[in-house]
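Repro:
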Amino acid sequence: MNYLDLRSDTVTKPTPEMREAMAEAEVGDDVYGDDPTVNALQEKAAEMLGKESALFVPSGTMGNLLALLVHCSRGEEVICGDKSHIYVNEAGGMAALGGIYPHPIQNQKDGTLRLDDILASIQPDDQHRTITRLICLENTQNICGGVPLTVEYTNEVGALAKEHGLKLHIDGARLFNAAAALDVDAKELVASADSVTFCLSKGLVAPIGSMLVGTKEFIAKAFRLRKMLGGGMRQVGVVAAAGLISLEKMTGRLGQDHARAKSLFAGLKQVAGLRLAAEPSSNMVYFDLEDSVALTENQIIEEMKNHGVLVDYSAPRQFRLVTHYWVDDAGVEKTVQALRDVLK
């Protein structure tokens, strides 16, 4: 059976154009800096975000860890959201591999961190305390519903960081979704950031890879650390070729995914047994199960699979459905009908 997969936008498979580009890609040894396709991808990523340099890495998790390792020394502290991917979903890498101390503060419903909370979390100059080095934001903020952080808010955090001698890193796994949702240029969203990651392998449809961008000095340090972490991938132009198509063509169509998420939300509002929050801002639809629903999360997953739709739950009694390139209008209708049948 060909399943309609809404578990995440990480499930996207490369387009026929990407597969052709991958097959024909000119390659070299990227550890030596000799892969022309990787070099072109890195130059394009840096240009699009208005930064000096960029580095192709296997995953967003590695990109975020590299940023933390460059910005912070062992025993130093990073301020981040308590619902941020970097804190919740990256296996504690900052602590386990970097000896970096996370200082989580509450994410607001709109995905932001209150400026007063950030300010209160900056450690004083005291030998008994850790040294605060870095603030991390996530855009879009996944667990808060895929909400985008605005240019104005990010600039306020950037100004606060600069005032207190801190660096600002943005986990922009879905940064281009944020740009599409807000109808702004992605470089405006990260103008005040010292470093940024974004994923090619989510809504941008590439099979592998993320980008880390920043200054030339920052990327030079990250390049060395990437080797330490096992991220030197040799003739990796075969996947970087798909990433180039992601940047050239896929960034401009994300609004279609957002429109389908809104259509899915509207359809699910008519399904008995579901409790939906605010209309989605980007490509994620979250809903909770009403108490009247006797089925467990795993039973719903199995029944939906029997209807040809793959879903996953994000928390007890809560599901997240994610639209992407391979979810069309018919897929939205199929999902709504399948949930209606499963829950009736």
